[in-house]
Amino acid sequence: MNGRWLARRIGMAFVVIYTTITLTFFLIRLMPGSPIDRMRAELYQRYGATMSEAEINRQVRLYLNVKPDEPLHVQYFDYVIKTFQGDLGYSYIQGVEVSVLLADVLPWTVFLLSVAITFQYVIGILLGAMMAYTEGSRFDLSASALSTFVVSVPFYVFAFILVFFFVFQWGIFPQGGKFAAGLNPGSLAWYRSVLYHATLPVVSLVATGFGGIALSMRANSIQTLGSDYIRGARLRGLSDHRISYRYVARNAILPLYTGLLIQIGFLFGGSVILEQIFSYRGVGYLMLDSALRRDYPVMMGAFLVITIAVVVGVFVADLTYGRLDPRIETGGEGR
Amino acid sequence: MSDRQVDEDIPLEVVSDVDRTREDRIRDLLLTYVVVPGRILITDPRALFGFGVVIAYLLIGTVGVWLLEPTEMWAGGRLVQPFQTLDHPLGTDPQGRDLLKMIIFGTPPILTMIFSGGLFVVVVGTVVGTVAGFSGGRLDDVLSTITDVALTIPGLPLIIVLAVTLEPENPVLIGVLLGINGWAGLARNLRSQVLSVREEDYVEAADAMGIPMRSILLKDVMPNVMPYVMYNFMSSMRGVLFAAIGLYYLGVLPYNQDHWGVLIRQAYAGGALTAGSMFHWILWPIVTVVLLSIGLILVSQSTDRLFNPRVHARHED
Fold it and tell me: Any transmembrane segments, and where (chain B) (predicted)?
């Protein structure tokens, strides 16, 4: 792996996280009717004159991680340093540390989305390749039409329809939750229950996500199939197998990476809606719940954690991209 | 055309002794943007369908709203099923309101939202992308970093955080908010396209002739990237539509008028998914959203064909 390239990627990841922290700070601190003002008003209303200014400031500091009595730049640096140390403040409503709440739910969202992304790409790439090889056939036409149609359906609409039929009409799948109650975590029955509960959310993401990937894979493959070096490889008598894997597939998959980077962000963002529909208590569910209850520390913490998850996901994708694209190895600019 | 006659008579001798009048220019513009795309459109059923759908929504959102009276509570019976009476072709909700009319009167705010969101995405994305690609150096570095950051921060959570702190109610403002990081993908792609256009000989020649950067950008670079920008306009309108409906469904955005997103939320909260007798309540707003989305996608897929100079050449005579 090229050192400079790696350093640039890591630097970029930090810039994104840092920007997000700055953004949450300014939203907490500077917005008119900001969380701080609201919290002050609430405390004042509840305790009236019995609570001193110093005590109110102490409370604000405990929950929001902001010291309202210090000058702005001190508040800012303090907030950034504390956040980088993993201290995200306390939940207004549950009184629990935000980081504890988040650590509890994050693995579930990562599990759900990584399964969904894997299926989306495997199905999309295989289908797209098949469409390209049979270009113009009836299979190609109907698969293209189907792919275009599923791209037009938002994933939550598909989720509604799944819930209507599979949960309420036929009762095949559970309405929500992450696993059935009363099972021993780690037992075989528990794992099966986890997969069972994850089926509908994953299906609604995969069914609406593979189409776009298949369409771009088809376009890339057709373009690659028409290029001179493929004709050259055929003339050199290379086997079909070698041509399709080493020459066509590799070159057609590489441009999909930019899409993958966007898709990771889109899915993690979309988890807010997805987990709400299936009552799946992940990061997205926690974020929405806290947003609706105006539990600002949890909301900001969840936003930050979702961003970090996307940054890490993009970074991992970038590393695998570096392994696939020989230009990265030799130090040329890949993208 | 008469110009062609002149060209054929004195090939390569004279640069151009025919002054283009304003009429010529208008005719050329019409040919490029109306007549030829129209001819291509007629031969492409998918594009025709897409444009038909989008124009139908525009008409419903303007003329339809002006022609009809809005529905009210107990305009019909409770939960009239679809296709039963001509008074309520799509049925009614549990409060006896006509669903078709609710959908029709929900059109203008949504159209305003997606149009302003799409416009915001395209304008910001195009300006940032082309400037970054053409300037190079430090400005390019700064703009590219901002673009990458905006591309990585997940959109929906960012919008939720902003919506909760700002509580916007104006459809235009909501649209802009929903496009807040949609511009980044366009900017990144445009930057690399501009970088490659910049290497072209004719752009280098224009630069060497001392033509100012602004007119090179407008006259030589923009036509090259225009189909892509149009494509993005359509697809980001679809993105804004999806995000808007999703956020109204979640109850994150405040609302002061009923539209499709609010309808879906009310239907979902009213238990429309739990019983077959209520399913039409949530189904019709969903169908409305999906149909508009299909229209936008088909239009966006055809923009390349409609404005691609190579496709044009085949349809010009």
Answer: 47-68, 110-134, 146-166, 228-250, 281-300
